[in-house]
Inverse folding.
């Protein structure tokens, strides 16, 4: 599954990636002007019209003795969608693991297990208040879809230059984080302990 998504985002098959990207963008742009119920109903109606037309077309071919009239979707109808007990248990364990991991992360941030991490999250939410005042959620989703289908491809084409700039930014952020930890009590290494430790080593 992961490799298929990566192939879509890297445009390995231009036709498939283009079709998925166009479908997503068309659906999201429709949601900008119509309600989600209306868009979902029209998409479902469009899909049903396509499948019914193909089914009727096969029946017409059978009537004129140019086909067997078999259901063109029979292969999908014959697929076994039931889950075994082991598959159900494994899926339940994966879901429970994700829920526990999410709850642990939320507890870490909101109960201030690490002050610096909580401050960084607060800063992120503060920035998002300004972003939300400019864009609505659907616009951000559209921008996110555009980024998903362009950023990975651009990164692969210009990986060396991007890694260089990202490294510079990461180093600067590391220096800023170190300074913040040094100034906040309990998050940095006290200067006295560092000096005493160096004296001990010297002795």
């Amino acid at each position: 599954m992961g490799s298929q998504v990566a192939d879509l985002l890297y445009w390995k098959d231009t036709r498939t990636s283009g079709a998925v990207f166009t479908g997503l963008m068309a659906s999201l742009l429709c949601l900008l002007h119509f309600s989600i119920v209306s868009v979902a109903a029209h998409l479902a109606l469009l899909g049903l019209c396509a499948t019914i037309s193909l089914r009727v077309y096969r029946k017409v071919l059978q009537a004129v003795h140019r086909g067997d009239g078999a259901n063109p979707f029979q292969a999908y109808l014959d697929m076994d969608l039931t889950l075994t007990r082991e598959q159900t248990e494994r899926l339940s364990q994966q879901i429970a693991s994700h829920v526990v991991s999410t709850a642990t992360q939320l507890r870490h941030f909101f109960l201030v297990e690490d002050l610096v991490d909580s401050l960084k999250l607060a800063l992120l939410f503060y920035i998002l208040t300004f972003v939300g005042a400019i864009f609505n959620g659907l616009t951000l989703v559209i921008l996110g879809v555009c980024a998903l289908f362009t950023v990975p491809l651009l990164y692969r084409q210009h990986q060396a230059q991007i890694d260089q700039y990202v490294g510079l930014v990461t180093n600067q952020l590391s220096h800023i984080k170190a300074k913040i930890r040094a100034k906040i009590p309990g998050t940095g290494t006290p200067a006295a302990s560092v000096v005493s430790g160096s004296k001990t080593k010297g002795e």
